[in-house]
Specification:
heterodimer, A: 406 residues, alpha/beta, D-Maltodextrin-Binding Protein, domain 2, 2 domains, four-stranded mixed sheet, 67% helix, disordered C terminus, B: 391 residues, abc type-2 transporter like fold, 63% helix, elongated
Amino acid sequence: MLPRRELRPGFWLVFWREFTWLRRRPFLLALTTIVPLSLMALLTMVFSAGLATRLPIAVLDLDSSDLSRSLIRMVDATPDTAVAVRVGELAEGRHMILSGRVDGLLMLPRNLERDVVAGRRPEVVFFYNTQTLTIGNLVLRGVNAAVPTAAAGIRLSLRTAQGQPIEEARAALSPTPVQAHALFNPTLNYVYFLLAALLPSVLQIVIVTTSAYSLGMDVETHYRLRILRWLGRGLWPAMAGKVVPYTILFLMVLGLSDAVLFGILGLPLRGRGWLLLIADVLFILSCQFIGVLLALLLKPMASAVSIGTLLTSPAFGFMGIGFPRLGMNAFAYGFGAILPGTWYLIARIDQTIRGTPLDLSWKPILVLLAFVVVLAGLTALWLEAIRVRPVREAGNRPPKILSEAI
Amino acid sequence: MIGLFAVFRDEFRRIFAHRPAFSILVGAAVIYAAFYPQPYLNEALRNVPIAVVDADGTTLSRELARRVDATPDIAVTMVLPDLVSAEREVYAHRISGILAIPKNFERDLLHGRASPIALYADASYFLMYQRVSGGVVAVTGTLGSEVETSRLIGIGVDPVLARAASNPLQLTAVPLFNPEGGYATYVLPAAFVLILQQTLLIGVGLLGTLPRAELAPGLTDDAPPRPAATVAGKMLAYLLLEAIILPLYLIALPHFYGLPRLGGVIPVLIFAVPFVLSVSGLGLVVAAIFRDPLTVQLALAAVALPFFFLAGFSWPIDAIPRAVHVVSLLLPSTSAIAGFTRLAQLGAPLADVRGEFLMLWGLTIFYGGIVWILEVRRRRPGRRNAGIAVA
C-alpha cells in the first residue's frame, strides 16, 4: 500500500513511516492541523473588523445650548466614538460605565456657551474607562479630536470678531501644527498589528506540545528510539525523517493562515517573500526541536507536554507585541529572547508591513538559525549519550519487534 | 445525600492523590502567579527612543527637542542630519520615531506664520506609536498656545482674553479605574481569571479521564450514588479547592502586585461561585469528550489565547462579529472576565453584573445537565461494568 516496502532504511523510510502513523492516528493529525487552524480561524473572525469604531459613550449635557449640541454632534461624528446615551445626572453616567454599557462619559457644564463667549474658559470633562486600556485610549482619541475642532471654530470667530482677517486668523490658530505619520500601518489596523502576530503564537504552542507528543511516543517504549535509528540508518537521517513530515504540515498550516491574511485581509508583503519563508521554516524547526528536547529530557511524556504548555502558553506577553520588550524587566526581556516566536515575529513584521531593507533583515533570521543549530545539536548529543547505555545492556532487538514498530 | 458526600470526599482526595491533576490545579497556578505577570510589572512604557532631524538648528528648535526629551514618554537618543539616515535607524529597530523640524522653523514662528513640524512614528508596535505621538502632540500643543498667547498679548490683547482666545474650551480627560494607564493593571486582572479557568479546565479534565485505582468506601459497585449526586459531589469538591486558590488569585495576588482596585472582597467571592461551578461542568464535559488525559492536555494547550480576545476586554465586543460573540458566551471566561474586572477593578455593585452572573449560573446548569445526562446513560444496564472504570 505504501512505497515503504521498496524503501531501504534511510531518511525516506522514517519519513514515510511518520506519515503512515499520522494516518493511523487521526488525533495526532487533527492536533497538528485542525486544532491550530480552527483556533486561528476563531482569532481571525474576532479581529476581522480590523478597526474598532463607534465605541459607545454617554453624554451629560447640562447646557443644552447650540454649542453643546454641536459638540455632541462632533463627538458622535468621529470614527472612534458614538454617543450611545444621554444621561440626566452624573450618577446615571457612572452606572452606565460600571455596567459596561458605555466606555466613557462626556460632561458639558451648565452655562458652557455663555462662559465661552465671555472668555471664562469653561471646562469640558471626559471620564473614560482606562481599565480596558485599548478601548479607553480609543474613546479618548475620539473626544480628543472632536473637542479641539469645536474649539477651533470658536477661536476663529473670537478672532474675526476682533477684526482679524479670516485667513490670518486661521493661520494663527495652530502655530506649530504636527503632521503625524503612522509609519508602516497608517490606519492603525489591528489585523496587521495584533492578529498577524497572534496566529504564529498559537502555532508556537501547538508545535512545541505536539512535537513533544509525537517524539514522546517513540521515547516511551524502551526500544523504539533504537529502531528509529536503525530505520533511518544513522542518527541524522532518522532525526530528519522524524521531524520533517511535521515541518511540512506546520508550514502548510502557517501558509494557509497567511493566505487568508495576505489574500483576504490585505496584509501587505512589503519585504521579501523568500526571506519570510526562510524565517517560517526556521521558526517551525526551532519550536519542533524544543518539543523534541522536552520529550527526551522529561518523562513521562505527559510532563513533557505539560512543561511545553507551561513555557509557551504565556509566551505571547513575553514576545513584546502588546507591551514592547523595551519596557520589560530583565527577567522578562531574557525569557523573551529565548523564545523562537520573539525573533520570528520581528522577522515577520520586518518582511510584511515594514519592508525592511535586506541588509537590516538578517539579525532575527540568524538568531532563529542559531536556535535550530543549537537545539538540533543538543538533541543529537543527547541521543548519542543515551545510546551508549541501553545498547550495552540489551543488545539489538530481533527484527520481529521491528516489523511491529513500523 | 450520603452518596453526594462520599463522592465529594473521594474527588477532593483524588485532587491531591493524582500527581498530574495536582500539578496543574495547584502547581501550574502557583508558577503562573509568579511567571505570567513578569513582562508587565514595569506598568508603563517610558523613554521610547526617537531621533530628531533638526534642519533649523535654532534656539527654538533645540528648545522643542529638549521639551520632547523631557517628557517621561520619550527619550531623544539620536540627532541625525537627514531623514534617510533616521529611517534606517527605524528599520534597525533602534528608534521608534523621527521628529523632523524644518528649516526656518523659528523664523516663521517669529513672523507670525504657521510653522509645521513632521513626526514619523513607528506604528508597527502600537504602544510605541501611542507614546511617541502622544508625547510630541502634547509638547507642540503647549508650545503652540504659548506662542499664540504671546502674539495676542503682543498686539495689545488683554492677557486673560489672550489665553481664552488661544484655548477657549478646556478639555479635561479623567481616566477612571486605572489612572496611571498601567499595562499590568490593565491586563493582569483579566489574565488571572483566564489562568484560573485554564488550570481548572485542564485539571478537571485530567481528573475525569485518569484511571482510578480503587473505589473509595461508600462508592462500591453494588450501590453507586445517584447520577445527580455524583455530578454535584464532584463539582463541590472543585469548588472547595478553588475556595482556597481563587481568593489567592483574584484578591491576594493583585494586592501583592500593587494593582489599584476599588471593589470589595464579598461581591468577588459571590460571583466566583457560578464561575467555578460552570468551569468545572465544562471540564467534566471536556473529560467526557476526550476520554484520555493526554488528549485533554494537548487539545486545550493553545485555547487560552483565543479565549482571552473573545472576552471583549482588550478588543471591544462591538467589533467582534455578533455570531462569534454569541457562541463565545458558552465559555465561562467571556462572562467571567467582564464580571470580575468590573466588580474588582471598577468597584461595580453585584447588580451591575447581573447579566454575567446569571449567564454563569445558566452555564453551570447547562454543563451540569450535560454531565448528568452522560452519567445517567453510562449507568444503563450493559454498560455498567465498562463505565465505572473510567469514572
